[in-house]
Specification:
It is built from 14 helices and 13 strands. By secondary structure, the chain is an alpha/beta fold. The chain folds into two domains: 126 residues, Aspartate Aminotransferase, domain 1 (Alpha-Beta Complex), CATH 3.90.1150.10; 242 residues, 3-Layer(aba) Sandwich (Aspartate Aminotransferase, domain 2). Strands 2-10-9-8-5-3-4 form a seven-stranded mixed sheet, sandwiched between helices. A four-stranded mixed sheet has the order 1-12-13-11, covered by helices on one side. α13 packs antiparallel against α14. The longest helix has 21 residues. Bound molecules: pyridoxal-5'-phosphate. Pyridoxal-5'-phosphate binds next to α3.
Length: 381
């Protein structure tokens, strides 16, 4: 049916009507006083969301652009970096580092398992002559639905003195990322995930310690030269032409988030994750990630006795719900349910009801109602 598609993929995520309407306006000049006021307001709001006083820079890019900017502005050719890889995005940051001739050591875990902070500690403690300049970690590894223990990894990084750079693309706005409290140096995210916005903006938070490395960092940079963004941000301006209508949307989305409150936003994501996981268990559909490392943004399911791609196809065609599939070697083996951003408890029940109907259609053997009932129990507890 037209206009009924429900996105339960991990980005782009659903966008509230008031955000869409705020964007449906004539653009204004990006050098105007009116736009400066918008930049000032959204920068304040973003600092609130990021729990930081650090510089908060806004780029016209996807999340990858924001992460690439964070990596290339504070490192030099040949620098040694540790990159956590337990999914598609960790792999991508290792590839970005290699594209810029950094000396990459991967710390890996199987997709579906969290990174082991002890492996970071071992590598960092062995590096007595301080060759490791940065540790790069994906907080919520979207491809597998795993939440990595950035807090513990960061403690080992702090003991060593390297910079820590975090992909918080699907953790920011879903779970706490207390940048100042933890002392995270570079934190990157993108508008189409927890922000309730369409794709188009990237965000990078940069600590004073990272800026110390900036003047000597020799990797090539121009459009993503964060020094330019910092200089202009100090004047509530932007070095290039930003997508001004996205800023109008961001203004409204941040107001909505502030009204809900950080704690309530995190609790909502936690509750919806728990409900989704309880339902999958009740339906005997195996979860890829363990409870202690489950992403609050996305649940990965590796079904047995029914094909993941068939589930996705019926959900999409008959019930107008888009679920994500697996990537790389998990293609066809898993489906992923996004519960990130503008998602209500009703959306979760709707998706799980449709999933049960889909399972019936596919002749999967289960107790009808078990999934919805298990989720309802969590949602109403
Ligand atoms: C979506 C996502 C990104 C960014 O992807 P883009 O397509 O460049 O926006 C980065 N990391 C994670 C964990 C993501 O989920």
């Amino acid at each position: 049916m037209d206009d009924k598609l429900m996105l339960m993929i991990p980005g782009p995520t659903p966008v509230p009507e008031q955000v869409l309407l705020a964007m449906a306006k004539h653009p204004i000049g990006h050098r105007s006083g009116d736009f400066s006021k918008v930049i000032a307001e959204v920068t304040e709001g973003l600092k609130w969301l990021h729990q930081t006083q650090n510089d908060l820079l806004i780029l016209a890019s996807s999340g990858t652009g924001a992460m690439e900017a964070g990596i290339i502005n504070f490192l030099s050719s040949g620098d040694r970096v540790l990159v956590g890889t337990n999914g598609k995005f960790g792999d991508r940051w290792a590839q970005v580092c290699e594209a810029y001739s950094l000396n990459v050591t991967r710390i890996s875990a199987e997709w579906g398992k969290p990174l082991d902070p002890e492996e970071f500690r071992t590598q960092l403690e062995a590096d007595t002559d301080k060759q490791i300049k940065a540790v790069i970690v994906t907080h919520s590894e979207t491809s597998a639905g795993v939440l990595n223990d950035v807090e513990t990894i960061n403690r080992h990084v702090k003991a060593h003195g390297a910079l820590i750079m975090v992909d918080a693309v699907t953790s920011l706005g879903a779970t706490t990322v207390p940048i100042d409290e933890w002392g995270l140096d570079v934190v990157a995210s993108g508008s189409q995930k927890g922000y309730m916005l369409p794709p188009g903006l990237g965000f990078v938070a940069v600590s004073p310690k990272a800026w110390e490395a900036y003047p000597h960092a020799n990797l090539p940079r121009f459009y993503l030269d964060l020094g330019k963004y910092r200089k202009e941000a100090a004047k509530n301006s932007h070095p290039f032409t930003p997508p001004v209508n996205m800023f109008f949307g961001l203004q409204v989305a941040l107001k909505m988030m502030q009204k809900e409150g950080l704690e309530n936003i995190f609790a909502r994501h936690q509750r919806q994750m728990n409900a989704t996981r309880a339902a999958m268990r009740a339906l005997n559909l195996p979860l890829l990630a363990p409870d202690y490392a489950a992403s609050p943004a996305i649940t990965s399911v590796a079904p047995v006795g029914v094909e993941a791609e068939q589930i996705r196809s019926v959900m999409r065609k008959q019930f107008d719900i888009a679920l994500a599939g697996g990537q790389d070697h998990l293609k066809g083996k898993i489906f992923r349910v996004g519960h990130l951003g503008f998602v209500s408890d009703r959306d979760i029940l709707t998706a799980l009801g449709a999933l049960e109907a889909t399972l019936q259609k596919l002749n999967y053997d289960f107790t009808p109602g078990a999934g919805v009932s298990a989720a309802a129990k969590v949602l109403t507890a």
